[in-house]
Structures are given as structure tokens and as C-alpha cells.
Amino acid sequence: MGFETYLISDATAAFGMKDQSGTYDDATTIHNISLATLHEEFATILTTEQLINHFIN
């Protein structure tokens, strides 16, 4: 549809969890994997600083 969607990585959070086989993944791993699955497919992942620089500079 032509939308430009941005997700601000340092304005989101995750929590640790066990997967379907009982393996525990910490919050940082879950956060990074979640961002990676969205990046360039559903959104552009940026930090707050990158977003500010993108639109102000």
C-alpha cells in the first residue's frame, strides 16, 4: 500500500520466555529476533537517534 513504517527499537521491550521445546530465551535475544523478523519486511527498524537524524537532518 506504499506506507513507510518505522519501529523504534529502543522504545520497545521484550521479556524472556520458554519456547515450545522448553528452551529459555532471554529478553535481549527475543527482542533482537523480533526486530530482525520485522526489519525491511514490515518496517524499517531505527533507534530514536537514527529516527531524529533521518527527519531533522
Structure, briefly:
With 57 residues, the protein is an alpha+beta fold. It contains two helices and four strands. The radius of gyration is 14 Å and the shape is elongated.
Describe this protein's structure.
- It contains 2 helices and 4 strands.
- The chain has 57 residues and is an alpha+beta fold.
- Strand 2 (17-18) and strand 3 (24-25) form a beta hairpin.
Count of DSSP H/I helices: 2
- Strands across the major sheet, in which order? 1-4
Average pLDDT over all residues: 94
Which strand-content bin applies to the residues? Answer: 15-25%
Strand/helix succession: EEEHEH
Radius of gyration: 14 Å
- Note the quaternary state here: single chain
Distance between the termini: 27 Å
For the largest beta-sheet, the strand count, sense and barrel status come to: 2 strands, parallel
Number of strands: 4
Total domain modules = 1
Category by helix and strand content: alpha+beta
Helix content, binned percent: 25-40%
Overall body shape: elongated
Unreliable segments of 5+ consecutive residues: none
